[in-house]
Amino acid sequence: MAMATTHRFPQFKYVDAVRWLPLQSPFHRFAVLALFDSDTDSSSIQIHSFNPNPLSFDSQFSWPSPSRISSLRTSHFLQKPLIVASTSSGSLHFLFADPSHAELLSEASLPDAALHSLPASSVDLMDAAVECVTVGEDGRVNLVNVGESNLSYRRIFDSGGLVSYTAVRWASPMEFATGGYGFSLQWWDQRKPGGPVSQFKGDWDKKLTSGIVHSIDIHPSRKHTCLAGGSLGTVFAWDLRWQQQPIILSGAGAGNAAVQSISESEVWEVQYDCCIKSNTSSTRILPSMICSEDGILGVIEQGEEPVELLAEPCAINSFDIDRHNPSDVICSLEWEAVAILTRQ
């Protein structure tokens, strides 16, 4: 693994989430931060410009959030960058930015409790941002259609609280995956309404039945494989073609297998790492990056020793790989800082 240059930028607030903001200009790099100020009990979304030479990370725009951000995503909509955020009070906000500058053009919102009786655990934007899916611990699954000036939504499932959902990820314009308690995963197809079309229960190890899936990723070239990270440092893949057993990549579920665990705490986020060119066959899981409660940002590749990119004294609760420059990774150090890594 090549070396990485790391720059840390203090924020003096809790950094709840970070995302790169996709912009049209190759000369401008911007990041989106979800911040919480415990002194004033106030939350905000800020856009920062990043310049590696000379090094700078400056706030360009700030939007006050009505409550703390629970999930943050970025995408494109009609050639404009789009930020979507759910809050702890249950509201959902879409912020449309200028395509060449870090300025807010317009905003559309759904009020508290319109979608969820509890905070939305996770939201995900479809590429091109035509539709957004939201899930919550209240057991509701909603689809939100994004228009230029309005939002419309419909509830496609409600478990009545019997099942809770903690993570969601689009797989195709018609399919998405959700995760929840007991390391459970569900596969949904809008062409087959009424509930998930396939389910996976994480009962391969009885001690893991209380585990939670915190994050899901699905690679566009292999939508049949769902990557998940959660409690006890667990990272695993669920292949829809062979559904009975998970493919353990790290964590407590590894047992005595030849799998080295990179973390023993909550894995807050997983993403496929497109910076690593894997020469493995289609039966191997593609390399992935994780961040964890015990301060680890690392890379996991099936059959290889895991690599630590960062080991911090505080939680790393989110990260994002720049899709246009995958050697650049931004991550949130919960104790009031942002780190940007450039892999050589």
Polypeptide structure, described:
The chain has 344 residues and is mainly beta. The protein has a domain at 8-246: Methylamine Dehydrogenase, Chain H, CATH 2.130.10.10. Helices cover 0% and strands 55% of the residues. The protein is built from no helices and 28 strands. The protein has strands spanning 4-10, 14-21, 29-37, 42-52, 55-65, 69-77, 80-87, 92-97, 104-110, 120-125, 131-136, 140-146, 151-158, 165-170, 175-180, 185-189, 198-200, 213-218, 225-230, 235-239, 242-250, 267-272, 288-292, 296-300, 307-311, 316-321, 328-333, 337-343. It has a 4-stranded antiparallel sheet, with no helix packed on it. It has a 4-stranded antiparallel sheet with strand order 2-3-4-5, with no helix packed on it.
Number of strands: 28
Measured by DSSP, the beta-strand proportion falls in over 45%
Give the CATH H-level superfamily of the domain at 8-246. YVTN repeat-like/Quinoprotein amine dehydrogenase
Q: Report the helical percentage.
A: under 10%
Q: Based on the coordinates given, report the CATH architecture of the domain at 8-246.
A: 7 Propeller
Q: Assign an overall shape.
A: globular
**Ends distance:** 9 Å
Number of helices: 0
Structural class: mainly beta
Largest sheet geometry: 4 strands, antiparallel
**SSE pattern, N- to C-terminal:** EEEEEEEEEEEEEEEEEEEEEEEEEEEE
Which fold name is given in CATH as the topology of the domain at 8-246?
A: Methylamine Dehydrogenase, Chain H
Strand order of the largest sheet: 1-28-27-26
